[in-house]
Amino acid sequence: MFTGLVEAMGEVVAREARPPGVRLVVRNAKIAGDIALGDSIAVNGCCLTVVECSSEDFRFDAGEETLSRTNLGRLMEGSRVNLERSLQLGDRLGGHLVTGHIDAVGSLDERHDDDQWSKFWFRVPKQLTRQMASKGSVAVDGISLTLVDVEDERFSVALIPHTLLVTTLGQLQVGGEVNIETDLLAKYVERQLAGSLE
């Protein structure tokens, strides 16, 4: 489990073919110095397992399923990623409960910058917006955000200067793809309601 509070940005320093998947090498000395083999790290919100680590970087194997359902398949050498270590019992839960299991890839539909603040509109599959409500939570590339407006196939979020500075969203341009994870509780509520209608 994760909170959706990004700890740091990392850089993809290598992408090694490991058919049918790839091995991603990510560099961030702050995170690397405090992880161990087998740890779970959210990379752009996607839960991956550390398969090798050093004092400066760490490596993940991403399989065919992960590459096809997330934006990780499009990462190249030099790409920036959001990083968060897994939640430990007793930690503060400053964001919301995030599993690291991506529901779909969305894209930035509109970006409205107002000085150092921004409002982003993301386009997503319609089935995801059924699990969203204004003032609810969503994880975008692993970042816990509060929903502002929700429409049939898109939603908006308001971004503060800090979020734009310390996450990959600051550099995201219209058309850019992001990993989307809807709120865990909303999924269960939707499932229960669907079952009561049968």
Describe the structure.
The protein is an alpha+beta fold. The protein has 2 domains: 8-85, Beta Barrel (Elongation Factor Tu (Ef-tu), domain 3); 104-196, Elongation Factor Tu (Ef-tu), domain 3. The chain contains 5 helices and 12 strands. It has helices spanning 29-32, 64-69, 126-129, 161-166, 184-196; strands spanning 8-18, 21-27, 40-43, 46-53, 57-62, 80-85, 104-114, 117-123, 137-140, 143-150, 154-159, 177-182. Strand 10 and strand 11 (154-159) form a beta hairpin. The protein starts with 7 loop residues before the first strand and ends with a helix.
Provide key terms for this protein:
42% strand, Elongation Factor Tu (Ef-tu), domain 3, 198 residues, 17% helix, alpha+beta, six-stranded antiparallel β-barrel
How many strands, what sense, and barrel or not for the largest sheet? 6 strands, antiparallel, barrel
> Poorly predicted ranges (pLDDT <50, ≥5 residues)?
none
Strands of the widest sheet, in order across it, are 1-2-5-4-3-6
> How many distinct helices?
5
CATH top level of the largest domain is Mainly Beta
